Amino acid sequence: MAEINVPVIFVIGGPGSGKGTQCEKIVEKYGFTHLSTGDLLRAECASGSDRGTKLADTMKKGQLVSNDQVLTLLKEAIQKNLANSHGFLIDGYPREAGQAVEFENQICKCSFLLYFDVPDDVMIERLLNRGKTSGRADDNAETIAKRLETFHKFTQPILDYYGDKVKKILATGTVDEIFAQVTKVIDSCKC
Questions:
Q1: 3-state secondary structure of 89
Q2: What is the torsional sign of CA 33, 110, 72, 44?
Q3: Which candidate, 13, 14, 6, 19, places its Cα nearest to that of 179?
């Protein structure tokens, strides 16, 4: 793989933390490439390739796609976009500390981790409000509680692993107030 001389930023936050909205704004302002592991998996499944068919079968069975398969998709997406990107936002990855280690061993070191920190009650309120219009099956109180529990269980070890590379954004204000914090972090990055 070619050397990566642009920022590679992991984006982590609970469900309803505003990651997607902020990633859109970062892409627009900085020309970064936004890579969501979920989007990469869905695109591969929709491609009709042999690999996509196998991945779809795995997911239909309710099984997790292996980290090796996810890393391969990330590697390919970074390679494909490297020549035209000013940086990469890796959204929703890593989901556990071991994945962070593997990414850094196989692809590159991350520049820093952007952590959108939001109290649970705010995320719950946002998701329930979104659920009124989104049609998403996972925007209900019972599922939200399980998603938050899983998020907290797996996120703390990642934050511990990255230590001072974690750039915490208090993501409870308006979209523009939160983005002002994000731009300060990115603009001060020596990556």
A1: strand
A2: negative
A3: 19
> Tokens 């719950």 sit at which residue?
124
Q: Residue 105 is which amino acid? A: N
Other beta carbons within 10 angstroms of residue 42's beta carbon come to: 15
CB 148 within 8 A of CB 142: no
Q: How many CB atoms lie within 10 A of CB 24?
A: 14
CA 106 to chain centre: 18
Backbone angles phi, psi at 31, to 5 degrees: 75, 25
pLDDT at 118: 94
Task: Report the C-alpha gap between 163 and 141 in whole angstroms.
Answer: 32
φ, ψ at 19 (rounded to 5°):
-55, -50
- Interatomic CA distance for residues 124 and 122, integer angstroms: 5
Closest alpha carbon to 81 in 152, 13, 1, 160: 1
Q: How far apart are CA 147 and CA 127, in angstroms?
A: 11
Task: Dump pLDDT digits (tens) for 117-152.
Answer: 999 999 888 888 887 887 776 777 888 888 888 888
Non-local CB neighbours of 168 within 8 Å, separated by 6+ positions: 115, 117
Which pair of tokens denotes residue 36? Answer: 């969501």
Structure tokens given for 111: 């520049």
Write down the pTM of the prediction. Answer: 0.87
94: region left, alpha or beta (phi > 0 left; psi from -120 to 50 alpha): beta
